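Posting this for the archive.
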Amino acid sequence: MLKRYRSSLFLLIFVLMFGLVLVACNAENGDKDSEKPDDAETEDTSTDGEDEEATDDDGPKEGGTVTGAMHTAPAGMFNPIFYEEAYEANILDFTHEGLTSQNEKLEFIPGLAKEWKTNDDQTEITFTLEEGVKWHDGEEFTAHDVVYTYTAIADPDYVSAGGVRTNYVEPLLGYEDYVSGESDEFPGVVADSDYQVTFKFAEPNVMPLYYTGFPIIPEHIFKDIPVADIPAAVESTQPGKVIGTGPFKFSDMIEREQYTLERHDEYWQDKPHLDKIVWKIVQQSVMTGLLEKGEIDFIAAPGGINPADYDMVNDYDNVKIAEQADFGYQLLGFKMNHRTAEDVAGGVIEPDNWVPNKKIADPKVRQAIAWAIDREGLVGKGHGEGLLHGRGQPINSPIAVQFWAYDENAGTNYTYDPDKAEEMLDELGYVDKDGDGYREDPDGNEWVLNMEYPVGNEIRERSAPLVVKYLDDVGIKVDLRQPKDMSVYVDGLTKDNSDWDLYLIGWNLGSADPDPLGLWGIKDAYNFSRWNNPKSDELLYKAIKAPEAFDQDYRTEVYQEWQKYFSEDLPAFLLYAQNSIWAYNDRIQNVQILPQTMYRDSHTWWVND
């Protein structure tokens, strides 16, 4: 029982201290490829010409500003094909749109495309686009913008420029030849006319609406900019230069303090009622107080309100609150492999060149770490309040619990069992040979695991030292590094700093399909663990390969096998899925809550002051 008594006593004091100072926070959203649900017909009460204050108390009023709060500033990439963070997505959710959206049942519904049809063998899907849609600069949206967007993602320079969303183009016809430079033409997306576009897949595709729903960027803005230069272009980074079709346009910012969106008067679904939506960067510790005072109007993703503050906020007379399961999870990742400096410099993800991390190479070591961590204690189920006050749950699979594919019984349920963890480590030869209370590796060398985590999400920040203490209890020495700003942290994750062993991050999953590719495929840029496992890839691709995958029961069985395999090889340990707790001032009218967002139909929002 290495150091068990001393560490447990410290942990008890630690938790009691935290119980006095818990403040507003929520799970981080790592990658947010979010759709913008848009399924409700709303009465058109906007006026043409000059804005006028409505005189009908029962109808929408024109004008006004609403203010949202997020705890971390966007890194500064406001181009949908290159952004990486949920904070940047908070801007893009209002400025850019895709061909399709989703409703409250997660069914695909029209977006920039008003209808679509697939061919008989599911190798093509043809969209008929809305006509008269205007970009923020007044130019007209056409099928050529769709072709340009997907061709840019397929470009040979896209990945080396920092792009991570190749999963949207990999299934398309001709992708391999185009990205390799063997062909100058990309036949996967074709403009049949100005208002009709066809996506062509290399093989029958079981989820074409997932791949074709990515936000569109304007060809006329980017066509003369080499793809390699797009991330640094002002058209991707600066207010007034970022152009979308959404109901609001990115007009101004005080970097790291405030980001302003102004209404798009020519928005195709009618002019928004609000004048502005403003995002302020606010410390989580003061968010709920500002919400009560009316100095901010909403707290949603990424973040939400602190579970500890739920009852207090729920009692605010001027605030409405919504709680539901989150489309995501927090994890403790294992850096199983590292990329070479040459590959990082070249923007290459080449598994054959990866350098194994011997410190955590054995899956049984990773399993022992999992048994040593009290996830129920973190969540607060049956162990007091915890960090989440019971408003969440441990999960055993990196698939959102809302999806039909999630199976909590498919994988290993790593309940808190430090004795089992110690026994496994002893059997593997990780024992304390010098009597200092910490284990050496089987060769007798000092065994220290370096752990990194970002600032911004206070619950995750507080999870970090708790995880370290759980590991300390079983004799695992962890060097908990100083937390980093999210932009610096993601850069380190992506470049694979060679001495990282453990990392914390959260993912806000897409709501279109349970497919884990994009995060856990070997060559996926977001596979930050650098999990190089051919068996996993075999199962992931098997689950989406036609014709068998047209049968959902078949896909379910394959994903059950994959979830079991994931939990055994364990490239990351899923800590918990925190509930989304969103709150907004009741002065905002017509807010509609969907499973994955509260930003739906923001052009219909209005304020009743």
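The radius of gyration is 24 Å. The longest strand covers residues 572-585.
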